[in-house]
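Quick question: who can interpret this fold?

. . .
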Amino acid sequence: MLALIGELYAVETEARDLKVPPKLRRDLRLLKTVPILERIEAWLNARVLDALPKSPLGQALTYARNQWAALTRFVDDGILEADNNLGENALRPICLGRKNYLFVGSDAGGRRAAILYSLVRTCERHDLNAWEYLRFRSHARQHSSRQPNRRFTAPPLEARLCKLTVLLRHVLGRTVTSDGYGIYRTTADVDIVADIPPGKVKAFVHLLGDEFYADDLAILSAVRAKRSFNVINISLGLKVDVFAVKDSAYSRIEFSRRVRLPFPPPNGPAAWVASPEDIILNKLQWYRLGGHVSSRPWDDVVNVMCVHYGRLDEIYLTHWAAGVKVSDLLTAALDEAAKRTNPH
């Protein structure tokens, strides 16, 4: 077994020494790593028959077989590492200094320290100067508070996203349009609801260009299975989550109600965006799925309602809220929006 594991790492070393891009590393793994994994799986299946189920060896074999899909996931995506050593090494300084963190002052102080540590370590991982990055983001945040309709994405990226929505009939949704319809907040990603036929996947990837990391085979697999996938803008570190149009009555009507509006408002290029009513319904579903823990989707809903108070299609909202089982949340959100809009 140790020899087989050594062969796996020999393939990873070869890819690292050749400095191949993610797509070629995936191809190399499919060629060389998959046969090794098949031998390892055969070894596990043979040994589990001889080991007592409750023995340490039997438990280890059962665990490995139960986690096999997760253990071999790295083969299908060249951007993934074969192990979590990078994560373990990143956590090492935290473990070494953990006694110092007994005195962060409060729970809130601990959360802020965790956020800063995450940002600093991510900067290090991408060879960025953490101080310069944090100073830039702080300045950008202050600037955005004076121009609430502007976003951090660069104009070429905004134009590219809008072009995608026009050519491939996508919908910018949820995170982005809740900002556009509601009250501005910063966001680390963009959501797109897309109806991409398998035959248009190559056109989609080509349109993204070199600005994005996109795995065409992984995208094709996701499109065929009606699963979500993501692409990443390399220079900005911006993640674009792409959600398939689900095969449900509500998803189809939501997609058909998309409208073309400037993104970002008020003078950006035209893009297909979800309607404010559908943003509200989607956010309420996310809020329920999240166990009502995060206040962000709830605040987004109430903000959109406040901005569009008196102009929302409440008949549509009431009908489809019942359909997606969020009627109680819709009633509560409408009441809160009414109190905010008419405090007296």
